[in-house]
Amino acid sequence: MTISDPPSALSRRFLLATGLAAVLNASVFLGPARADASARAQDLVAALSQEMMALLRGGRSDAQLVADFERILSRYGDMQIVAASVLGPPWRGASSAQKQAFTTAFQGYLARKYGKQFRDYDDASVAIRRARDGGKSGVLVETAITRTGRQPFAVEWQVSERSGAPRVVNLIIEGVSLLTNERAEVGALLEASGGNVDRLISTMNAGT
Amino acid sequence: MKRTAVTLIAIAIAALALAGCTARPAPSPPLDEDPLEASNRAAHDVNVTLDRTAYGPVSRAYGTYVPEPVRNGVMNFVDNAGLPAIVIQYALQGRPLLVAETSMRFAVNSTFGLGGLLDPAAEMALPYRETNVDETFYRWGVPEGAYLELPVGGPGTQRDWLGFALDFAVDPVIWLTSGTTALTLTGLRGAELLHDRYKLDPVVEALLYDSVDSYTAQRISYLQNMRARLQGGSDLETLEDPYDDF
Predict the structure, then answer these.
(1) What is the mean pLDDT of residues B62-88?
(2) Exposed end of chain A (fewer CB within 10 Å): N or C?
(3) Which residues are CB-contacts of B199 (< 8 A; sequence separation ≥ 6)?
(4) Do β-strands A167-173 and A176-177 pair in parallel, antiparallel, or remain unpaired?
(5) Of the candidates A82, A175, A184, which has its C-beta nearest B225's C-beta?
(6) Min Cα–Cα distance to chain A from B45, Å
(7) Is the Cβ pair B243, A81 closer than 8 Å?
(8) A189: contact with B, CB 8 A cutoff
(9) B56 contact partners, CB below 8 Å, separation of at least 6
(10) A113, pLDDT greater than 90
(11) What is the dihedral of CA B208, B229, B31, B210, to 10 degrees?
């Protein structure tokens, strides 16, 4: 190749293509890492919902469903931070054994509370509508859950990578945040346990 | 029917003209602010009792004994009869596209949908989209006010309840119908309330009967849902980062 070579059609096309990509691809503005975070968050939600739907259609018993759901929670969610955020200030005063015990108890409580409710959704379909990047707070992946003959409803999955890997840290169902509601509920349970974290843990383990 | 349509169009045009001035929505108060808590909790106790003894069981009977096609027919009819009021609200909100879509939906379902019993408009990309005076107030920048649970009425805010009263006052279908028709419509609206409660049964059960503090569970769920609905989704700006505190 010599200096006198005219600019090739290929390189012009390349320039045009990169220019077009720059306009089309938000990664230029957000930084490539953020666009990837958005894609990773959507992949996580797609994998998670596929696994959930397979479970629900598998004809499992209530007990099996709750156990499977608990496994999904610990694999796809950062349950340690969800538990910490829900317990709030008492988390900081807790010993590491108490933190571990509370996280396990809370995970079982969530699986029982929501696992059985999901039973009616074996005919549902999950479609990813959009993903919005909230920066440090993570990516909000919006899905539409549709059951036959019913209006679809919106579930948003907040996916954060602050633990080092993409993990679900909150669920927002038709605008209602699971973190916000469970914080109130666990707060009320803690109050009923006289503010004693160990009693709260055994109450939660006793189940409902 | 023809006179109804002409009146509606006249009201819609007047409203669109009025809505030229658009305001910014007022910010929502913090979720834990609840100045009317004492009277709200008293109303809540009444409502839970009413739900346990009457509203819940009757709505489950409605869902169990009335066949689904009939329930859906009632729902379609009631939704369709509510469309003229919705057209007016969209006009007051200054949203001409939704005024046109909703008017079209009303025309299609009132004719091809056999007076609203069927919903062929949904197949024509004209889905049911509800709005009320509450959304108009929101768009005009009227603040939400305090959370206000009313006995029999249930959860709401001061803005919602004022809007709810006005929904009846400005509903053209109520003004333009009379006697048996108006009574029948009111009866069907009552049946539709049972249908709503039946469809939401698992959610209502979880909130009212499986929560340690059902008043708070219902209050914060209601407020979050209402705000997301009016804003058109969750607010990315106020998304909490659970890692921040730990």
Answers:
(1) 94
(2) N
(3) A150, B63
(4) antiparallel
(5) A175
(6) 17
(7) yes
(8) yes
(9) B197, B201, B204
(10) no
(11) 20
- Closest CA relative to residue B89, chosen from B186, B5, B4, B171: B171
Query: Kind of pairing, strands A139-146 and A176-177?
Result: unpaired
What pLDDT, on a 0 to 100 scale, did the predictor assign at position A132?
Answer: 94
Q: What does the alpha-carbon distance between residue A28 and residue B36 come to, in Å, rounded to a whole number?
A: 50
- B11: burial class by Cβ within 10 Å (0-12, 13-18, 19+)? middle
Q: Do B233 and A137 touch (CB under 8 A)?
A: no
What is the mean pLDDT of the segment spanning B147-154?
96
Per-residue pLDDT, B170: 87
Q: Are strands A167-173 and A153-160 parallel, antiparallel or unpaired?
A: antiparallel
Q: How big, in percent rounded to 5, are the helix, strand and coil portions of chain A?
A: 60, 15, 20
For the segment B220-232, the average pLDDT, to the nearest whole number, is 94
Whole-complex ipTM: 0.83
Give me the sheet containing A139-146, strands edge to edge: A125-133, A139-146, A153-160, A167-173, A176-177
Q: Tell me the mean pLDDT in the region B62-76.
A: 94
Task: Determine which helix (DSSP H) or strand (DSSP E) holds B38, and give its type and residue range.
Answer: helix B37-50
CB pairs under 8 A, 24+ apart, for B10-18?
B11/B88, B11/B91, B11/B172, B12/B87, B12/B88, B12/B91, B12/B99, B12/B103, B13/B91, B15/B88, B15/B91, B15/B92, B16/B91, B16/B94, B16/B96, B16/B99, B18/B92
Chain A partners within 8 Å of B30 (Cβ): none
Confidence of residue A47 (pLDDT cuts 50, 70, 90): very high
Residue A34 and residue A6: Cα distance in Å, rounded? Answer: 38
Residue A14 has pLDDT above 90, yes or no: no
> Which H/E stretch holds residue A67?
helix A62-76
- Beta carbons of A176 and B211 less than 8 Å apart: no
The whole-chain average pLDDT of chain A stands at 85
